[in-house]
Amino acid sequence: FRIALLLSPHDSEPIVSAPSVVISTLPGGAPASTPTIVRATPADPTRVSLSWAAGPFPNGPILSYVLNLNELPHGYTAVK
């Protein structure tokens, strides 16, 4: 956009500002970054309590999260 200033009706040309800088953002959609797990605490022998923080580039409001739990490959053990 630009701003024009007309000082008096007798001036033939208004004073016009330089064009503003164009800033583009990504459209809303899937986040461009993943959330970070902040804390994982054992609640009991069969449950874990997780806390996480949203990623730095959400591309709009976060509507929901999907948590995937994967089994360890054969031969690997979890650190306790």
From TrEMBL:
InterPro entries: FN3_dom, FN3_sf, Ig-like_fold. Transmembrane segments: none annotated. Residues 34-80 form the Fibronectin type-III domain. This is Fibronectin type-III domain-containing protein.
